[in-house]
Batch of 2 targets.
Target 1
Amino acid sequence: MPRYLRITPELPPPRAYDAAIGAGALTRLAELVRDAAPAARYALITDDVVLELHTERVCEELRGAGLEVQLYSFPAGEPYKTRETWSYLCDRMSADGLGRDSCVIAMGGGVVGDVGGFVAATYLRGVQCVQVPTTLLSMLDASIGGKTGVDTEYGKNLVGSFHQPRLVVMDPTVVWTQEYADMIAGSAEAVKHGAIMDAEYLAWIDENAGALRECDTDVLTQLVVCSVERKSEVVQRDPYEQGERAILNFGHTVAHALELATHYSMSHGHAVAIGMVAEAGVGERLGVTEAGTSDRLRTSLERLGLPTRIPEDISAERVAELAAGDKKSRAGRLRCVLLERVGCVAQPTAAEWTWDLGDRLASLL
Ligand SMILES: NC(=O)c1ccc[n+]([C@@H]2O[C@H](COP(=O)([O-])OP(=O)(O)OC[C@H]3O[C@@H](n4cnc5c(N)ncnc54)[C@H](O)[C@@H]3O)[C@@H](O)[C@H]2O)c1
Ligand SMILES: [Zn+2]
């Protein structure tokens, strides 16, 4: 007979954190960081594009305010969201002697947030992290909820960890320097928040699509605030994606397949826009989703200038094959979030949030 010894660590309770959102929030970064994440030294992690546009200036301001900051940068883009970038950053921090009393500040889009967050989760078994998202997508989605990680040749986000930030600071005016198409692509995740949990929010996005396309600061700020509220409701209830948090993956089964099929030349936001319309259509064909939902989402997304159709050179079979390799499949079965109608996700059983599509996806697309 084996002997059973029960080990009961006293784990720290989950810690609340603030998202500071508003035009000019970055000018208060030093003070906000000092309060929420006091540390001996700060590793300011960014990518080469954001470095020149914003991070060098912010670094000077933080140093000017008396914080000790080491600045680290890596090439921009999804192809650099890798273990190689993660090890490069960890090694540089080791060489510079950053200790456990350090804090990572990840300043950039979702790629920097995911890699920087994963460095914070793992460096010396975990140091504090502050997220400073600089793309619309990372403000209204990626920076909230503590998911961190890197891609591998087998798929997206396959190696990672949950590591909640101590603070998130978002200045919506920073997105003005984004490529316009990239900025608008981020709004796909806001449409997702409306589609899965709040039909009124989706109606508000429809009404304000024109102002969003013109980068109106007040409307952008409102969009970020509303999405952060919606997303945080879900991640607060289910921080480790044991159940309900899976609804945030609506559209993402197809989206991740499209990103893989295009070797990441299709942006995440565009892939999510197309993925949501496709998955709403799958739900309609299965009789799970109210008829017309897919068209309704298509109208909202097209009003924002987002793509909604799978490119003709990518077959349904290829999408299904790549989706089956995605980690959202369980026990080798392909699973997908389906809507009941706009604003509400359909559950196959009271405890489940994703539907088993088995090998039927290609025939349902
Ligand atoms: N952790 C999560 O919960 C979560 C959620 C959604 C998405 N994500 C991840 O986020 C990533 C996508 O994020 P993204 O769309 O921000 O992409 P990204 O980080 O690659 O940024 C896109 C491009 O914009 C540049 N950029 C960033 N900020 C800029 C600015 N203010 N001005 C000019 N250029 C700027 C970047 O250098 C990059 O070239 C994906 O890897 C996705 O998997 C993570
Ligand atoms: Zn996403």
Note: The pocket of zinc ion (ligand 2) is lined by residues 141, 189, 252, 268, 272 (CB under 6 Å).
Target 2
Amino acid sequence: MKRHPSLEPFSRDHNDGLILARRLSEGGMAALPLFHQEWERELRDHFEEEVRLLGPLCGPDAQDRLHREHGQIQTLGHAAATDDDAARLGKLLEEHIRWEERELFPEIERTADSLQLGSLAHAAAALERRRWASDARRAELVARRESGAATTAADLGYLSRVADDLGPQWGMESEDLNATLLAWTMGNGVEEHVNDEVDVLVLAVEGRIELRIGDDSLTLGPGQMALIPKGARRSITCVSDRAAHLNIHKRRRKLMPGSLQRPPARQG
Ligand SMILES: [Fe+2]
Ligand SMILES: [Fe+2]
């Protein structure tokens, strides 16, 4: 069965992983430097991103197995001292990849809905852009896939849950409208500014945000929203460990307020 495009970045890594597994199985200790090199180049990041991006789409058993096998491969990879250890490492790695390709990925393709898979594709493309900025071949694959990607629907809960950076996580623009999902950690947010051009609807998706509009302030939690009228002085501050909100407004000239990183805001 053809792999869903959102999982292709992981499957591309698996091609490299299977070559490494075979080298370890056949070459013993002589292949261990290659493991360390691949660990730094790709494997560690691959493991972390599978847990971050695929974990929320898996059942608890699959999540446990993902964590457990990643841990076993990391531990053995850094402790291997004999040809037998290296061969065992190769076998572990190969079996782990086969499990993901034959069971885990098909399960995700079967159980995730199209909005979740579309949002995963968005997050996976961002991961590839980050990782392959200096690799022209992979960068081109990302660009080609993104040009055909639909960006008018998203699973905001999933995207806010997997956010690993501050600020914009996802956005869409139609002829008339603009929507941007932003994520913050405690005390961070959008610094005070005035926008004279458009009204902005702020919808809290995760955590709690404090919205200051003029001299008023109000705190929003998931599912709560407020309208900021144009011309009002406003700021948004995350007042929980993490928070995410969707800003929606009429399309306008680009105006990007600076983001604010400061000590935790006072609560209450
Ligand atoms: Fe994995
Ligand atoms: Fe994998």
Note: The longest helix spans residues 83-111.
